[in-house]
Amino acid sequence: MIVEDSAIQAEILRRILVAEGYSVIIAKDGAEGLSKAKGLKPDLVISDINMPEMNGFELCRHLKNDADTLKTPVILLTSLSVPTDVISALESGADNFIVKPYEKSHLLSRIEYIFLNRELQEHPQSQNAVEIHFSGQQYVITSEKKQILDLLISTYENAVHKNNELISVQKKLEILNEELEQKVKSVQTLNEDLIIQQGVAEDARNQAEMASRIKTEFLANMSHELRTPLNSINGFSEVLYDETFGPLNDKQKKYIGNVLSSGKHLLLLINQILDTAKVESGKMKLTLASLPTKHLLFEIIQLVEDMVNKKRLKMIIEIEEDLPDIEGDELKFKQIIYNLLSNAIKFTNDDGEIGLSAKKTGPSVEIEVEVWDTGIGIAAENMEKIFEGFFRVDTPYSRLTEGTGLGLPLSRKLVELHGGILTAESEGLDKGTRVRITLPIISGGE
Amino acid sequence: MGRKVVVVDDNLNNLLLEKDLLEIAGFEVFEADNAADAIALVKEHNPVVIVMDVRLPDIRGTEVARILQQDKGTRDIPIVFVTASVLADGRLEIDSIPNSGFISKPINTRTFVQEIMKFIK
User: Fold this and answer.
1) Interchain contact A259–B (C-beta under 8 A)
2) What are the structural domains of chain A?
3) A229 contacts in B (CB within 8 Å)?
4) Mind telling me how many Å the CA of A299 is from chain B's nearest CA?
5) A120: number of CA atoms within 13 Å, CB side?
6) Which residue of A has its CA nearest to B90?
7) How confident is the model over A5-21, as pLDDT tens digits?
8) pTM of the entire predicted model
9) Residue of B nearest to A229 (CA)
10) Residue B106 contacts by C-beta under 8 Å, 6 or more apart in sequence?
11) Does domain B4-117 have CATH number 3.40.50.2300?
12) Contacts of residue A232 in chain B, CB cutoff 8 Å?
């Protein structure tokens, strides 16, 4: 018979016993247990201790004091939290203890043992009372020696078992602890690595910033240092050439003229190289403003008028009446247009034609400026080379010494900085050239 | 006639070129290669125009301008700045000075004097 107030616990235990071939009765509390025991005379009572109405100890005592149930072995289920439980169990005359939570095999072997030893319990000897003191209290134990031993051994067994469990859990804990420490250590190491990496990255960044600053300063200094003496060369040569301080003979004029044109070429080259270096190292900053596009185009056209007339070229201008102003860098814009026009003039033979057209493009976010000529054109295989830099052409129409080969590539880069595109087309040698640029009305550049 | 001009530039070649061009055109030219001398010359000779490089060894040309304009005697003399970076941030500085203008470097020797004369009243 199982006496247990928890239906679940009772059911679990019932199933275990039934599986072993025992038949099981269940009582929900001490009182029911007592009456059922008297009535049904079970071979064994397994009882919980904490129950309402009548607890396990009381039940046991009643059973042992009643002639009908005196011989029924009683196993008490307890959590063994208090040492006095053992004494109470002895006092009540229980035959055995099982500690909750119990191991199934342990319980079953206890039950088997009890049934095996029933014979001995058939003849209970006279009860000798034993007095003990424990924890400041006096107890009278009247259980059989065998009972006492059984109880104590089962208690001891349970204690050792619990202890072993505890030790194994502790061991597991130690292992987990070690693992944790390892993990913590490796996290710390990772952290230290990370901090070092951060330091390295910051150093690298500082160095890069410093290098960038040095580069900017260098470009600015170079710019100034190169241009200053060159401006003197050109200035003095020009004044001499103009015979401001008196006439020159033919040779003097020729020579000083050569000095002047070489100086101007050199200045152009230096300016273009420095500009290209600036653009390529990302240091070219545009000074954006609203540009009077039409006005500026006419300005440059006027600038090249002399060159056009000298070669007796016909210049066709088609600038849209309501050409919108664009957002851009005035100097750079003028530079680009001047480069395209001077190229057209340079590479067109005398009495040829050149033209400039400018209009708003369809969707009205860009303007398109096209400079075309009827000159020497570009061979298909050279189309890419003209943008690479230093590609110069030696033809009967333009002396090799005139251009620098940097103007067009630089113009393209400047157009791109504004957020626009520069393209060149030619049907081939002697078939003329068209260079087209588009520029956004609101700058898409830096 | 001898209308007087003070020319200020720390580069002696520039100074020589500008002086010669102006003298050929009939001006009496006084040169200075630093701010202190420039201010002294202006106060002494009261020129019709001052031609000044923005980059001077001791202070910026625009600062000199401010100093001259605080003095009643020199306040009204027009100042023409010669600068390599016409459209850069320096432009705002120049624009903020009344009675001033600028021409770009390198100077066009053929039009230099005409351009300066535009500033003379």
Assistant:
1) no
2) 2-143 (3.40.50.2300), 285-440 (3.30.565.10)
3) 13
4) 17
5) 11
6) A287
7) 888 888 988 898 898 88
8) 0.59
9) B13
10) A227, A230, A231, A234, A235, A267
11) yes
12) 11, 13-14, 17
